[in-house]
Amino acid sequence: METIIFGGGRLGTAIAAALRERGESAPTIVGRPDRAHPDDRMRIAKRTPADVAFECSRGDAAALDAGVRRLVIATTAWSSDRPAVERLLRDRGAAAVGSANFSLGMHLFGRLVDRAVELFGPLADFDPYLVEWHRAAKPDRPSGTARELALRIVAAHPRKRRIADPARPGSADPAELELAVVRAGASPGVHTVGFDAPGETVELRITARDRSAYAAGAIAAADWLCEARRPPGIHDFDRVVDGLLGPAPRLVAVG
Ligand SMILES: NC(=O)c1ccc[n+]([C@@H]2O[C@H](COP(=O)([O-])OP(=O)(O)OC[C@H]3O[C@@H](n4cnc5c(N)ncnc54)[C@H](OP(=O)(O)O)[C@@H]3O)[C@@H](O)[C@H]2O)c1
After folding, report:
1. How far is the centre of ligand 1, averaged over its atoms, from the C-alpha of 75 (Å)?
2. pLDDT tier at 61 (50, 70, 90 boundaries)?
3. In angstroms, what is the C-alpha Rg of the chain?
4. pLDDT over threshold 80, residue 205
5. Binding pocket residue ranges, ligand 1, CB within 6 Å
């Protein structure tokens, strides 16, 4: 698989390392454009006959303009541009997998959270909450992943209607899902979903150690794009995860 990576930061280099580890040829990494030569990204992309492009910097159309028709979009904070990106991909006949979080563990964690909301939601004693903790320097708060988890809980929970504003603590509105943000130290990411009742607390927690989990998921998405012709547009990472899990086990009646 020939690859090009837009963004030579922590995620881009983690993907490059994981590709090299499994014996792929070294990817071309395109960093921040030089102010004096703003078209360099495009020129480098055009020179690189890539099967797949990984976008790990900020969303732009350089890969599409250069003719790449399979994209893994790992960059975050572009959801408001999603309709325009979707249109562009369809116009160019290109397929992308886009996700704010390419960790396989996080996707399965989301499914565990769905199940936990299903179990605890009907029990009025169990109040759900979400806490996310990232390194002190992380600029966005809450994280995109925390926001997605919170939306998922609110969508399925019988008593929670909206997410509490993390900047306004202690609103005590029972219809709001409490979401707390911690920015301290060097943590690459901890997300905790809890259900608290007067006599006990149940917590689900996922802790990222480094970016290798995101790299593995991004490469799985690239493999998924390459293994069959996918329809143009943006595909959810859930499709890739379903493919990795294989068919659900069938229940067989015994006796
Ligand atoms: N989907 C996922 O699973 C996942 C996981 C982790 C991170 N992310 C997202 O992926 C992106 C990159 O994360 P990271 O941890 O690698 O960040 P990072 O270490 O800060 O790297 C960002 C890279 O983008 C480049 N860049 C910055 N501004 C740019 C611009 N205007 N045009 C083109 N390139 C630019 C940076 O260049 P310089 O080095 O010159 O600044 C750097 O190479 C972020 O959006 C992050 O939120 C997604």
Report:
1. 7
2. low
3. 20
4. yes
5. 7-12, 31-33, 56-58, 74-76, 99-102, 211, 214
The residues annotated with a catalytic role in the active site are 134, 138
Confidence (pLDDT) at 38: 66
Q: What percent of the chain has pLDDT over 70?
A: 95
Q: Could you tell me what percent of the chain has a pLDDT over 90?
A: 69
DSSP string over 168-212? S-----TTEEEEEEEE-TT-S-EEEEEEEETTEEEEEEEE--STH
54 bridge partner residues: 5, 72
- For residue 114, the CA-to-ligand 1 centroid distance in Å is 30
CATH number for the domain running over 104-207: 3.30.360.10
- Determine the residue of 5, 39, 56, 149 to mutate for testing ligand 1's pocket, defined as the one with the most ligand atoms within 8 A of the Cβ atom: 56
Q: How far does residue 214's CA lie from ligand 1's centre (Å)? A: 13
Taking the model in full, what pTM does it have?
Answer: 0.86
Cα–Cα distance for residue pair 88/95, rounded to 1 Å: 10
pLDDT for the residue numbered 115: 98
- For residue 152, what are its two tokens? 């998922």
Match domain 3-102+212-245 to its CATH number in 3.40.1190.20, 3.40.50.720, 3.40.50.300, 1.10.357.10: 3.40.50.720
Hey, whose CA ends up nearest to atom 24 of ligand 1? 57
